[in-house]
Amino acid sequence: MKKTFIVANWKSNFTSSEADFWFQRFKNYDLRIMNKEIIICPSFTLLSEIESVIKNYELGFKIGAQNVSPFDEGAYTGEVSARQIKEFADYVLIGHSERRTNFNENDEILFKKAELSKQHGLAPIFCVQGIETKIPSDIAIVAYEPINAIGTGRPDTAESAQEVAAFFKKNYKVQYVLYGGSVTSENVKKFTQMSNIDGVLVGGASLDAQEFYAIIKNA
Ligand code: 13P
Predict the structure, then answer these.
(1) Residues flanking ligand 1, CB < 6 Å
(2) CA-CA distance, 2 to 17, in Å (whole number)?
(3) Which three-class secondary structure state does DSSP give residue 62?
(4) Of the N and C termini of the chain, which has fewer Cβ atoms inside 10 Å?
(5) Whole-model pTM?
(6) In this predicted model, what pLDDT tens digit does every residue of 175-191 receive, in sequence order?
(7) Mind telling me the catalytic residues?
(8) What fold is seen in the domain 4-218?
(9) Is the pLDDT of residue 29 over 80?
(10) 17 alpha carbon to ligand 1 midpoint, in Å?
């Protein structure tokens, strides 16, 4: 049975009490037996609290950050370094199209982020927009997120995602490829049943606890 990653990207949503409310829904379920790696990626402000909640409720979820500084610790006002993030998280999203577009992040910056993350024991989930996206040579997890599928309700086809996934596995040392873009509990299985797709990266639908639980179950 292959391992399936279900990753929630909460983006810039949820205050502390809203995150707590979301977790209340999950505390009665034991999800560890499902052979699924469930990763919650909240804002930096919630990392510490979520680490405690996951422990207290014994959920077995992992934590990912949504961003990381391209610099190591030091005089970089406003940045959060990989070493700081590693206190709470095991994963980090790098290269999301929202960061490339809104914050002008280019390959050079993204490669630095990936390198520092690895140095500090954080696993990068490197986002690609298609086969033309460059990735560092030592990336193990890629998330394929075609830009026009994000937040539009128009996911890519599973067949197209499967082709992109095969490309990255063939041409790089990539072990796992996730699909992201308008994933719901209704369409998740179409993607996860493809041989080269190892999970999903969920934005909007992950904000509703019940819907996210349905995605986990249906994946
Ligand atoms: P949606 O699931 O809202 O389309 O967002 C996808 C995404 O950007 C996850 O990183």
Answers:
(1) 9, 96, 145, 150-151, 180-183, 201-205
(2) 35
(3) strand
(4) N
(5) 0.97
(6) 999 999 999 999 999 99
(7) 96, 145
(8) TIM Barrel (3.20.20)
(9) no
(10) 23
